[in-house]
Specification:
This protein is α+β, with helices and mostly antiparallel strands and about 325 residues long. It folds into two domains: about 20-100, 2-Layer Sandwich (Phosphorylase Kinase, domain 1), CATH 3.30.200; about 110-320, Aminoglycoside 3'-phosphotransferase, Chain: A, domain 2 (Alpha-Beta Complex), CATH 3.90.1200. Helix content is about 40%, strand content about 15%. It contains eleven helices and ten strands. The chain has helices at about 5-10, 60-70, 110-125, 145-155, 160-175, 215-230, 235-245, 260-280, 280-295, 300-315, 315-320; strands at about 15-20, 25, 30-35, 40-45, 90, 95-100, 185, 195-200, 205, 215. The strands form three sheets. Strands 1, 2, 3, 4, 5 and 6 form a six-stranded antiparallel β-sheet that branches. A two-stranded antiparallel sheet has the order 7-10. It has a two-stranded antiparallel ribbon with strand order 8-9. The chain is globular, with a radius of gyration of 20 Å. The termini are far apart.
Length: about 325
């Protein structure tokens, strides 16, 4: 349920509230409203699930986001409550607040050099993370689960079932590169175009640090190269060169550099597939189908990985095939 504007303002010490909008953006885990107070304009993120149902600590991501913001990484400032918390329950609803930034729609065609320089800035913020790497970022879905979701999709009359069946051998093959990821430092781990955008002023901006955690910068670089390179060697080189020139520590060295990318794409795709099967209304099914179509329409397969690695690192497929 919507929270009260003044209650949010008081919880975060933001002065007198004048308005709180309807949701202006919605993700898988939360929705954003615009709060106006006499001290400025703010983004209010309200979680869609109670914290009791969320695996992570409600403060997760806040300290790393603040450290990145203080280091000059372009992002909305995370607001800390007078009690020193990034997350506060307002009328029993989990809420976080950030400074407001006007963003353009997601765009994978952002200037690759600017993206590479920004990523290097993120990786320059060294914060250790003692927890384990979540399976979402390194574990395969596996043959049994993929065959199970295919069987369920066919039983439910899914319009994509034949395409999923045709793609399945390639999905299983590419999961062979997945290995445990080294816990080098805290990384953002969600740098898709939804979360790395251009502002209306033309600058880049990173949002949504909720999934940050222990990772290897090499694998996050690989993910960003995939997302913003879009299969173009010139864009790969521009991004990677700018990242290196700005002091970025990661290096694409072989197929495993793309393991984070594969793991996330497969978990996202698997989630949409299972959600389509479980959907109970047309709206939920349509939302899931959009994710399924994106997953099936742009799969990342082993030849694609070898091409990227060869272009960026100078490694041929024989080097990458050691995994």
């Amino acid at each position: 349920m919507p929270v009260d504007a003044q209650d949010v303002a008081e919880a975060f010490g933001l002065g007198r509230a004048s308005s709180l909008s309807d949701p202006v953006a919605r993700g898988e885990l939360g929705e954003i409203r615009r709060l106006e107070t006499d001290r400025g304009t703010w983004a209010v993120k309200q979680e869609l699930a109670p914290w009791d149902d969320v695996e992570d600590d409600p403060e997760h991501g806040g300290p790393f986001h603040l450290a990145c913001w203080r280091a000059g990484v372009p992002s909305p400032e995370p607001v800390v409550s007078p009690g020193g918390r990034f997350s506060v329950e307002v009328s029993r609803e989990p809420v976080r607040v950030y400074s407001w930034v006007d963003l353009e729609d997601p765009d994978t065609g952002l200037d690759p050099a600017a993206v590479g320089e920004l990523l290097a800035g993120l990786h320059a913020v060294h914060q250790q993370s003692d927890g384990p790497v979540h399976g979402w970022f390194e574990a395969p879905i596996g043959r049994r689960e993929w065959k199970g979701v295919l069987k369920a999709s066919r039983a439910a009359g899914a319009p994509y079932a034949d395409r999923l069946a045709a793609l399945l051998p390639g999905l299983l093959e590419v999961e062979s590169i997945l290995t445990p990821m080294a816990r080098v430092q805290t990384c953002h781990l969600d740098l898709w175009s939804d979360n790395l955008r251009r502002t209306t002023d033309g600058e880049l901006c990173v949002i949504d640090f909720d999934n940050c955690g222990p990772a290897d910068p090499e694998r996050e670089l690989g993910m960003v190269l995939f997302e913003f390179g879009r299969g173009d060697p010139a864009r790969w080189h521009a991004l990677d060169s700018a990242y290196r020139d700005a002091g970025g520590p990661g290096r694409v060295t072989g197929r495993e550099s793309l393991a984070l990318t594969v793991a996330q794409l497969h978990h996202i795709g698997h989630r949409h597939l299972t959600m389509w099967v479980a959907a109970r209304d047309d709206e939920a099914r349509a939302r899931s189908l959009a994710g399924v179509e994106e997953f099936l329409g742009e799969p990342l397969l082993l030849p694609d990985i070898d091409r990227l690695v060869d272009a960026v690192a100078g490694f041929g497929t024989t080097v990458g095939s050691s995994t």
